[in-house]
Design a protein that fits this description.
By secondary structure, the chain is an alpha+beta fold. The chain has one domain (2-195): Clam (outer membrane lipoprotein receptor (LolB), chain A). It is built from three helices and twelve strands; from the N terminus they run αββββββααββββββ. The longest helix is centred in the N-terminal third of the chain and has 17 residues, at 2-18.
Length: 200
């Protein structure tokens, strides 16, 4: 069951990296955006996603508490890597190379949104009727564990319950096709990044 959450996080954070594999691949159907999220359930807090070039550039800032631990920091994609660091601990960070990237890039054949949908189908989800969320017509995938809403490839809502543990994430504010400052995609040179093993 934990693999579902790992896969959801994988899609949410690494799909923008896929664009570096093939110029025609566009993780999102919008050129740029700033999206604010709220978390509740097993993780409580908020996050903000910045992206540009249809997801070729992506940065997520998260400030939340999960399992009693504070999780605050940045996740920025650059090439085949994700870089993670806490601004309050500015001298060290982690970097992760995900071996799934090439596989997803090849399997998706350029259609990342349909590929993501097919993966949810394999995990027991089914297509639901489209729903409107924050005024956006969203695609719906749902199953015994919950449901996921996406719009133009962007995660709009995730509501899951696994083994008695609930996880809820939803967009609270969305700005699309707006200028996004390039500073959000810069990897700090003063931080020493250690290689992080794969999570799954």
């Amino acid at each position: 069951m934990k693999n579902l959450f790992a896969f959801s996080l994988c899609l949410f954070f690494i799909l923008p990296i896929l664009a570096g594999q093939e110029n025609t691949l566009k993780p999102y159907g919008l050129k740029s955006g700033i999206i604010e999220y709220s978390y509740s359930g097993d993780k409580v807090g908020k996050g903000t996603l910045y992206f540009d070039d249809y997801g070729m550039k992506s940065a997520m800032f998260e400030d939340a508490i999960e399992d009693g631990e504070k999780r605050k920091g940045w996740i920025v994609t650059y090439g085949d890597y994700q870089y993670l660091w806490d601004p309050d601990q500015s001298d060290e960070g982690m970097k992760l190379k995900n071996p799934m990237i090439t596989w997803i890039a090849e399997a998706s054949k350029g259609d990342v949104e349909s590929f993501t949908e097919s993966m949810y189908l394999k995990m027991g989800f089914s297509k639901g009727h489209d729903e409107t969320f924050l005024g956006k017509p969203c695609k719906v995938m749902k199953g015994d564990m919950g449901k996921v809403l996406t719009w133009n490839g962007i995660l709009m809502l995730l509501d899951m319950k696994v083994m008695g543990t609930g996880s809820h994430q939803e967009v609270t504010k969305i700005q699309t096709n707006v200028p996004v400052d390039g500073k959000y995609f810069v990897i700090p040179k003063n931080i020493k990044f250690s290689e992080m093993p794969m999570m799954f």
